[in-house]
Amino acid sequence: MSPKLDHHHSPVKYISYIVGYVVSIATTLLAYFFVVNKVWPKEALIFVVMGIAVVQLLVQLVFFLHLGRGNRWKVATFAFALLVVLIVVVGSLWIMHHLDYNMMNMSPDQMTQYMNENEGI
Amino acid sequence: MTRAEEEVATQEKKTLGFWIYLMTDCVLFAALFATFAVLRNGTAGGPGGAELFDMPFVLVETIILLTSSFTIGLALLASVRGLKKQTLGWLFVTFGLGVTFLGMELYEFMVLIGEGHGPQQSAFLSSYFTLVATHGIHIAIGLLWMAVVMVRLWRRNFKKTDINRLALLGLFWHFLDIIWIFIFSFVYLIGGMA
Asked: B5, B16, B117, B138: which has the fewest C-beta neighbours closer than 10 Å?
């Protein structure tokens, strides 16, 4: 192996896995503790748990999957996958929330009637 | 290029190819997560997450999977350093933790179905079972792969090709760990709030 190749493939250290593991366990327990003890009201808790999940994602990407090491295409494909994931999840929630919101307080029969009259279905 | 350099280049290509597969798997799970998020309140008059989920049980499951992700990392490091016994030992621990996780998940499903809260009860439970079981099937396939890698490393004289396969298995296992973190956070912690 040439020294040039070696530079990109410097061996991954034990410390990387130990730090990743400790931080993952700590954040998992923290999120669990917050939710079980209802430290904050529900809306705030949802954002806290989502935030902790993102922190864990980053920790595992860096310390376990070593994103950024080796081939640069890994980062590019990851960024694209993240974009698709966000479009699918946020888009679904957005559209379904608006459908739900606009159809609020209607029984299934009323909804059928409404759709017959106004949506041409 | 020398033989060694060629081998490194080939392994890098294989890693990238496998990585791209993992990214497409991400999109599959994104679709299932989106389905769950949309249907989470569609309980059809039945119980929701707050009544159904056994939180301490799920926490133990999560810690087991996190630990297995750590131990497969240790196996990976040992394999790169050429330590056969240590590699196989850590792989064995990882395999045991993976089987325990899968067993706990199946037990959880059996309890839910036994109480009449199977996937046919409501849209919420359909999407829950689809999402969590898809992850479980991935884990089962990962365990099968791990068994093959272990036997090959043990019987075939610890060859470089098998060590490279172990590196890909490690990527797969860490990926499943990340998916589980999101299942734990979104399905159990957030979905289980009253």
From this structure: B5
